[in-house]
Amino acid sequence: MNRTVTALTVFALLALSVSPTIAANQRQRISQEAQRLSMDDVKSEIAFGREVAAGILGKYPLYRDEQLTRYVNLVGKSLAQYASRPELNFTVGILDTSAINGFAAPGGYIFITKGAIDAMDDEAQLAGVIAHEMMHVAQRHIVKEMNIHGTEASPAAGFSRVIGGATDVVKVAFVKAVDGAMDILFERGYKKQDEVEADTLGTVLAASANYDPAALVRYFEKIKGTEAKETTSLQKLHPPFDERIEWIRRAMEKNGLAEAANKTGKGRFNEAVRKKS
């Protein structure tokens, strides 16, 4: 049997054991707005996100490890089924840098740095970071701020058709919007409320896929003591770790997750990233 298919089956079985109430609440939080999107909106979001992803890869190259990349994408697929954006194909890439960070481009392009993975203790922490980035995509944070959609009301209307003969005005608007997205990702960061949503909804998303809901808290508690040079970008672009930990814990309490003891996947994580238990 194909090893990838077998692994996907294992991830699916794990996900099926989650509380249906948590999964349903997660879908309801996100899907209502997504249902109002037109096909042109989605196409524009994906086309825009593809260019933003290219910009991210212009700053950091991909880490070339087929086995590890397959593994993080299996984790991503186990989460994506609860992200309430079935029209998007979420993919996860690993960036070849020791800096600790993660990035999300609209349309489902997720990036985690090798430094971030090296700082993790288990699969649940990996899932927590990926889920955080997925929620930036699912909640369309950059898309909303850059006013990206498929109608003529958008200052950069018709992004899905830019490559095929758009006017110079549209092309200029497109480039300007991509630059704005890159500024959010690398210079000024998301709005605070966007980070609250990504952390709290991401925590519920990870729990929906049967991962330890406290994993992101454990990860933040660990890396906040890491050498400053590795977390400089992360701390510059995000609220303080202690503040994030506090609102995640409140979300866990609100959603009945404070006493949850879901899986950490430590053994599988150690094997995948070639660590010793």
Summarize the entry for a quick read.
With 277 residues, the chain is mainly alpha-helical.
Q: Can you walk through the features of this model?
A:
With 277 residues, the chain is mainly α. The chain has one domain (3-272). It is built from 13 helices and three strands, in the order ααααβββααααααααα. The protein has a three-stranded mixed sheet. Strand 2 and strand 3 (109-113) form a beta hairpin. The radius of gyration is 18 Å and the shape is globular.
Beta percentage is: 5-15%
Q: Count of helical segments?
A: 13
Number of strands: 3
Span of the ends, CA to CA: 27 Å
| Uncertain stretches of 5 or more adjacent residues | 1-20
For the largest beta-sheet, the strand count, sense and barrel status come to: 3 strands, mixed
Query: What is the share of helical residues?
Result: 55-70%
What's the order of the H and E elements? HHHHEEEHHHHHHHHH
Average pLDDT, to the nearest integer?
A: 84
For the largest beta sheet, what order do the strands appear in spatially?
A: 1-3-2
Summarize the helices and strands and which ones pair or pack.
Elements: H1 3-16, H2 20-34, H3 39-59, H4 66-80, E1 91-95, E2 102-105, E3 109-113, H5 114-118, H6 123-138, H7 141-145, H8 168-188, H9 192-208, H10 215-223, H11 228-237, H12 241-254, H13 266-272
Parallel strand pairs: 1-3
Antiparallel strand pairs: 2-3
Helix pairs in contact: 1-4, 2-9, 3-8, 4-6, 6-9, 6-10, 9-12, 10-12
